[in-house]
Write a structure and sequence with these properties.
By secondary structure, this protein is mainly α. It is built from 10 helices and 2 strands; from the N terminus they run H-H-H-E-H-H-E-H-H-H-H-H. Strands 1-2 form a two-stranded parallel sheet. Helix 2 packs antiparallel against helix 4 and helix 4 runs antiparallel to helix 5. The longest helix is centred in the middle third of the chain and has 37 residues. It starts with a helix and ends in a 6-residue tail after the last helix.
Length: 298
């Protein structure tokens, strides 16, 4: 009887998976965790898209304001067009999804961080955590700057419509919405790129001196990007916006140079111009806390 009672416990103990001392996972386990992360991201986007559906009237009025301002400045009659019977519903669904994705971006980055974190060393975790911690607010600041750029861009584009009798401007709202989203994403990505540069430097891929050599291109691209995305006639807006973007890039260069100098002083040698600082990538022992941190599956 005792042997019969002990048999199930022995089989359960035998079938229990042993934890890898180095925190490694099989391909199947990685795929299962990736699926779980994607499900969480999808649920977050759906929930926040419902929020976007509810705030659609307010967002619609905010997006309509640049068109009304352009019509008032140019004196040309502007009409927002919803072509087709179901276009209104499609536009509302599309805008709600955009709002959901933008609001869910912190969760998307967090899930990406939790998926990658167990495979990183402790120093790499600090770098990646700093990247996500600074990239999220900068992305939202960039999106806000992009929307402000739209408010400046639309009146300028509408000013090219001839001011003549019988001439008006019919604006398909779906095309206008695409313009707004692309502009906001372009500025959001532009504000995050300097953080990516710092991360590459901390990972030993890109040196600060190499970044500094491209300072002329940084200034030129900052001005060109602002001139294309925010084509305002006054030079003040161009100078302020391009200076803000260039300042982010030069701030990233300063941080990279300081990091290279600190690493060089620690190593007791100078770093060549074409070589990035080297981080310590020796394999570190991973205890139970490191394996289970953030996921519960490691």
């Amino acid at each position: 009887m005792a042997s019969d009672a002990e048999a199930p416990a022995a089989r359960a103990k035998k079938s229990r998976k042993k934890k890898d001392p180095e925190g490694r996972m099989s391909l199947g386990e990685h795929l299962v965790e990736l699926r779980n992360r994607l499900v969480i991201c999808a649920i977050t986007i759906v929930v926040l898209s419902v929020v976007g559906w509810m705030v659609f009237p307010w967002v619609f009025e905010a997006l309509k304001a640049p068109i009304l301002a352009g019509a008032e400045d140019t004196g040309v009659e502007a009409l927002i067009n919803f072509q087709g019977v179901g276009t209104g519903l499609n536009v509302r669904l599309q805008l709600s999804a955009y709002i959901g994705i933008i609001l869910a971006s912190p969760m998307l980055m967090l899930q990406g961080w939790l998926f990658l974190m167990p495979g990183l060393h402790r120093n790499e975790r600090r770098y990646a955590l700093g990247f996500f911690g600074s990239a999220i607010p900068l992305f939202f600041i960039g999106c806000a700057a992009g929307f402000w750029g739209v408010t400046q861009l639309v009146p300028v584009l509408m000013s090219f419509t001839p001011d003549a009798d019988g001439v008006g401007q019919v604006i398909p709202y779906d095309q206008y919405l695409t313009l707004v989203i692309k502009t906001m994403l372009a500025f959001g990505i532009a504000f995050v790129i300097p953080v990516v540069m710092v991360l590459l430097n901390f990972l030993g891929i890109l040196s600060g001196r190499t970044m500094l050599k491209a300072w002329r291109w940084i200034i030129f691209l900052s001005v060109a990007f602002t001139a294309v995305m925010v084509p305002t006639p006054e030079p003040v807006t161009l100078i302020v916006m391009s200076s803000a973007i260039a300042a982010l890039f030069f701030g990233a260069i300063v941080i990279a140079l300081l990091h290279d100098r600190r690493v060089a002083a620690k190593q007791g040698e100078d770093i060549p111009d074409d070589q990035a600082s080297v981080i310590e990538d020796a394999v570190e022992p991973i205890d139970d806390t490191d394996r289970t941190e953030g996921t519960g599956t490691r």
